[in-house]
Write a structure and sequence with these properties.
Elements: E1 5-9, E2 29-33, E3 36-39, H1 40-48, H2 61-84, H3 91-113, H4 122-132, E4 134-143, H5 146-157, H6 162-167, E5 179-181, H7 188-194, E6 201-202, E7 206-208, E8 211-222, H8 228-258, E9 265-266, H9 268-288, E10 297-299, H10 301-309, H11 313-316, E11 319-322, E12 328-329, H12 330-340, E13 342-344, H13 349-375, H14 382-405, H15 412-422, E14 426-428, E15 431-439, H16 442-453, H17 458-465, E16 481-482, H18 488-493, E17 505-507, E18 510-520, E19 523-525, H19 531-561, E20 564-566, H20 568-573, E21 582-586, E22 592-594, H21 606-610
Antiparallel strand pairs: 1-21, 2-3, 2-20, 4-5, 4-8, 6-8, 7-8, 9-11, 10-13, 11-12, 14-19, 15-16, 15-18, 17-18, 21-22
């Protein structure tokens, strides 16, 4: 919960990837792009946390670094163009920058109130290490009712057998075997009770957020930590668990003090109108979704425009979240929903209302924390400003790109063609399953056929006679296979009726008698996404392709107008890992964002830019 970064895909992220040798380089400027700069710090963080093609080939690393630098320069150039167009004053950019500032300011407040206050007492570390050196084989009794759990405890005290009490209870299905419990698996209150037990003892009823537990210790075993690597890993694990627990306690303590005297409400009438409007949007999305799809239903920027069109200006500007100072309008809250994300797995009115209620509560909580952080001036810290400016430039570059693509007319037939090409239906051929008996002579094959026709069990005959070694364990059964897979066998099997037995079949290996025991007819599976679900995305892709040449020319021209200076020496000194990594940054007091903006590679303009400069011999 308290890690700065969580890895979601591709290998592993080492949090301290900036080596000591590079620390002195972090303030260096790798490139200047007009009024904007790209520091060593930004370049390192962006390239390390953005998957790169060819990054694993060491000899290509210089070109990988240079191409990525050109992509970042593109981002800065497009951001400058967006500012020139006045897009930095647009509602979408102002909203995004404001929300980013609040998000990173909350994280800075979390640093002050939680991360920087985490100190692990020596006695806690020693106790945790002792606990981490053993594990418990255990089971538990559970009840949401305290009266019931204490009654069960009395039965145990009176000599009742733990397994007998557990046998007739629902929680047995969750633990058919004994659980292997190690340090850190349980909440502290339960862990404290469990680790006091000897073998064949049970805890008193222990309260947890979901109910009451009684744990029973069947066996206690010592862990074998012999090698230096195992000891180092155990030490890191203990420190991680203690850090999380202390951090959680600090956060809970801060929450109790901070929210104790605060009360903020949302306008009930506007809440209902908003919820009903969202219900209509998600109802349509659910109808458009392919049956059986597990893709989440998501409220996005296209939905925001439709949502706002259903409200008049008075409603949009009305106070929705009633803070004592600076209440938040319905319009601003809608923008927050789009930025933060609003998703449900399946449409129902209850789910939409419940999700919206949760989002309102989270917004109020996070807004109060952000306002406290800004009140303390944490939004002005170098760390917060670094990330706000990084993301601001990225959003400006995307706004510039959208301004170019939104005006492009893309014929609907092209979008449909892209859909048909990208989301093709899947065809699965007919599948068959047979039992085969392979023998050396025709006379034996004929005898087997007659015995089977007279009612003998075909599987037993296969077990007795067949010389096919790889089907011996399955008594001659092949398992399902396409009709084209086994040549003559598949061809003949496809013509049999279910449970029909073939006449002897001449093969290179001998003679086979087969019985068709299963058939799955040819299936055509429709694309996993319907056209309406992806048409906007496909339209943007088609627009980008159609505008690529113009974007190259425009970017090259912007590069000429905005003086670009690159420091090749600083770039060359930076050491980059060859591990592809993608990460999500989890922020303090809630919220998450990709660790860095993921920029689309774009360096085709560089050659045109350089062609304007004559190189002297």
């Amino acid at each position: 919960m308290y890690s700065r970064i969580i890895i979601t895909t591709l290998l592993i992220l080492v949090l301290g990837y900036k080596s000591t040798a590079q620390t002195l380089l972090l303030d260096e400027v790798i490139a200047k792009v007009g009024s904007k700069t790209i520091s060593s710090d930004e370049f390192l963080e962006r390239i390390e946390l953005t998957p790169q093609f060819r990054k694993n080939i060491k000899r290509l690393m210089p070109s990988v670094k240079l191409e990525f630098l050109y992509t970042l320069i593109t981002e800065k150039l497009w951001a400058l163009e967006a500012e020139k167009m006045g897009l930095d004053t647009s509602e979408s950019i102002r909203t995004a920058v404001s929300l980013l500032e609040k998000m990173f300011s909350r994280d800075a407040l979390f640093n002050k109130e939680v991360r920087e206050k985490i100190v692990i007492p020596e006695e806690d570390y020693i106790l945790a290490t002792i606990r981490n050196n053993k594990y418990y084989l255990s089971r538990y009794l559970f009840s949401e009712d305290s009266t019931e759990i204490f009654s069960l405890h009395n039965h145990l005290l009176s000599g009742s057998n733990f397994d007998s009490l557990l046998a007739g209870r629902q929680e047995l299905s969750e633990q058919p075997d004994t659980l292997v419990i190690v340090f850190g698996d349980l909440i502290e209150s339960i862990e404290d009770s469990l680790y006091k037990l000897s073998e064949n003892e049970f805890t008193s009823p222990v309260s947890a957020p979901d109910g009451w537990y009684i744990f029973y210790a069947y066996k206690i075993e010592e862990r074998n930590l012999n090698t230096p690597e195992q000891l180092d890993e155990a030490e890191s694990y203990v420190e991680k668990i203690l850090t999380e627990r202390i951090g959680e306690n600090l956060q809970n303590s801060f929450y109790r003090d901070f929210f104790n005297d605060k009360k903020v409400d949302a306008d009930r009438q506007l809440f209902i109108i908003l919820a009903e409007s969202l219900c209509e949007i998600f109802k349509k999305k659910d109808l458009l979704r392919r049956e059986g799809s597990t893709t989440l239903l998501t409220f996005d920027a296209w939905d925001l425009l439709g949502l706002k069109s259903g409200f008049n200006d008075k409603q949009l500007n009305s106070d929705f979240i009633r803070f004592d100072n600076d209440p938040v309008s319905l319009n601003d809250f809608m923008n927050y929903l789009t930025f933060e994300g609003f998703q449900i797995d399946k449409y129902s009115k209850n789910k939409v209302y419940g999700k919206l209620n949760t989002q309102v509560k989270l917004f109020i909580e996070r807004e109060l924390l952000a306002r406290e952080a800004i009140k303390r001036g944490l939004n002005q810290t170098q760390e917060v400003q670094k990330y706000v400016n990084m993301w601001r430039d990225y959003y400006l570059s995307q706004a510039f790109l959208s301004s170019r693509l939104d005006t492009v007319h893309i014929d609907s037939t092209l979008i449909k063609s892209l859909y048909n090409e990208r989301y093709k239906e899947a065809k699965y051929p007919e599948l068959l399953n047979i039992i085969e008996i392979l023998v050396d002579s025709l006379s034996i094959a004929e005898k087997i056929y007659k015995d089977a026709a007279a009612g003998s069990d075909f599987s037993q005959l296969a077990e007795q006679y067949s010389k096919r070694t790889w089907t011996r364990e399955t008594k001659g059964e092949y398992g399902f296979f396409p009709t084209t897979q086994f040549g003559k066998l598949g061809e003949i099997a496809s013509k049999l009726e279910l449970n029909e037995i073939s006449r002897p079949i001449k093969l290179k290996e001998g003679y086979s008698v087969i019985k068709l025991i299963g058939r799955k007819h040819e299936q055509i599976e429709e694309p996993f996404k319907k056209f309406d679900e992806v048409k906007n995305k496909l339209k943007l892709e088609a627009a980008f392709d159609s505008q690529y040449s113009d974007l190259v020319d425009l970017t090259a021209e912007s590069a000429r107008e905005n003086l670009i200076k690159i420091n090749p020496y600083s770039l060359d000194k930076l050491k980059i890992s060859n591990i592809n990594t993608f990460a999500i940054r989890v922020l303090g007091f809630g919220g998450k964002i990709t660790a860095v903006p993921i920029a689309r590679p774009f360096s085709g303009w560089v050659q045109k830019w350089l062609s304007r400069y004559d190189i002297l011999p």
